[in-house]
Amino acid sequence: MSKHAEPARLTVPAIRARKGGEKLVCLTAYTAPMAGLLDPHADLLLVGDSVGMVVHGLPNTVGVTLDMMILHGQAVMRGVRHAVVVVDMPFGTYEAGPAAAYPAAVRLMQETGCHAVKLEACAGIGETTAFLVQRGIPVMGHVGLRPQAAMVEGGFRAKGRTEAERMRVLDEARAMDAAGAFAIVVEGVTGDLAGEVTRAVGAPTIGIGASPDCDGQILVTDDMLGLFERVPRFVRRYADLRGIIGPAVAAYAEDVRAGRFPAPAEQYGVKPG
Ligand SMILES: Nc1nc(=O)c2c([nH]1)NC[C@@H]1CN(c3ccc(C(=O)N[C@@H](CCC(=O)O)C(=O)O)cc3)CN21
Ligand SMILES: CC(C)C(=O)C(=O)O
Ligand SMILES: [Mg+2]
């Protein structure tokens, strides 16, 4: 490392090579300043379609568009110097197959400068993943609880409690691994299934609501910082930013109403002469 202790720029193959090694530290990011804060500590930052719920107030991720992902991807890229940045392909942009997925992924790569895209497993996911990877687009997989299926499943349902679910999750992970995915998010599955998936694939697995047996972990940053209110039970809260923001805003409101803000030092003076 250089004498300035600036961590070197990570690459997609470097992430892939971490299978079974040092755990991968991953978080979501949606804005430039937050990406800048996370970047020195993270190996991979995901511009998740969770942005629709966390930032835009949508009930699930189905309403997130490609234009929204591009705007947030551009913002995050401006804040990052070290981590690999992955942008979620949103609902409706890849499920129809390679002919749909390729132009959408090219837009994400070209208009944001991101390093890779992520696809939730769906019908034909092996073929679609291979098509992108073989044309220069690194793909991260996502199996288990697939938030974009929320309308079909009637909500966010954990996976792995029936044999059929376990087979499906394992098959989808194997298909994306064989197709060349460089990493696979394993979300909302029983701990033993997450371990089984991790042992079944060559790509590193990134757990969320899964197991410490995964090769890395990811959380939605706003959840672990206590910014987003309704969090899944697998979240560990490392800060209570809502508890800091509320009193700060209340104090500002009091100062304004009492005429205590702005003070003289917070006003522009007239230039002498
Ligand atoms: N803020 C936020 N955090 C996330 O982790 C997240 C998002 N948004 N949006 C996209 C998906 C949706 N996710 C979710 C959302 C809710 C549950 C949830 O309510 N789970 C139930 C358990 C369901 C079950 O047991 O089947 C829970 O009680 O935690 C899980 C994952 C994960 N992702
Ligand atoms: C929860 C992670 C894996 C995700 O897909 C997102 O933030 O959209
Ligand atoms: Mg997502």
UniProtKB/TrEMBL annotation:
Positions bound to 3-methyl-2-oxobutanoate: D49, S50, D88, K118
Stored Pfam families: Pantoate_transf (PF02548)
Annotated InterPro entries: Pantoate_hydroxy_MeTrfase (IPR003700), Pyrv/PenolPyrv_kinase-like_dom (IPR015813), Pyrv_kinase-like_dom_sf (IPR040442)
Subcellular location: Cytoplasm
Cofactor binding description: Binds 1 Mg(2+) ion per subunit.
Pathway named in the protein's UniProt entry: Cofactor biosynthesis; (R)-pantothenate biosynthesis; (R)-pantoate from 3-methyl-2-oxobutanoate: step 1/2
Cofactor annotation: Mg(2+)
Superkingdom, natural source: Bacteria
Enzyme Commission identifier(s): 2.1.2.11
Reaction catalysed by this enzyme: (6R)-5,10-methylene-5,6,7,8-tetrahydrofolate + 3-methyl-2-oxobutanoate + H2O = 2-dehydropantoate + (6S)-5,6,7,8-tetrahydrofolate
Residues annotated as binding Mg(2+): D49, D88, E120
CDD domains the UniProt entry points to: KPHMT-like
GO biological process, one term: methylation
UniProt keyword Disulfide bond present: no
Active site residues per record: E187 (proton acceptor)
Primary site of residence: cytoplasm
Keywords for this protein: Cytoplasm, Magnesium, Metal-binding, Methyltransferase, Pantothenate biosynthesis, Transferase
Keyword Repeat in annotation: no
Record-stated family: Belongs to the PanB family.
Functional note: Catalyzes the reversible reaction in which hydroxymethyl group from 5,10-methylenetetrahydrofolate is transferred onto alpha-ketoisovalerate to form ketopantoate.
Subunit structure: Homodecamer; pentamer of dimers.
NCBIfam families, per the entry: panB, PRK00311.1
Name of this protein: 3-methyl-2-oxobutanoate hydroxymethyltransferase
Organism listed in the record: Acidisphaera rubrifaciens HS-AP3
Organism placement in taxonomy: Bacteria, Pseudomonadati, Pseudomonadota, Alphaproteobacteria, Acetobacterales
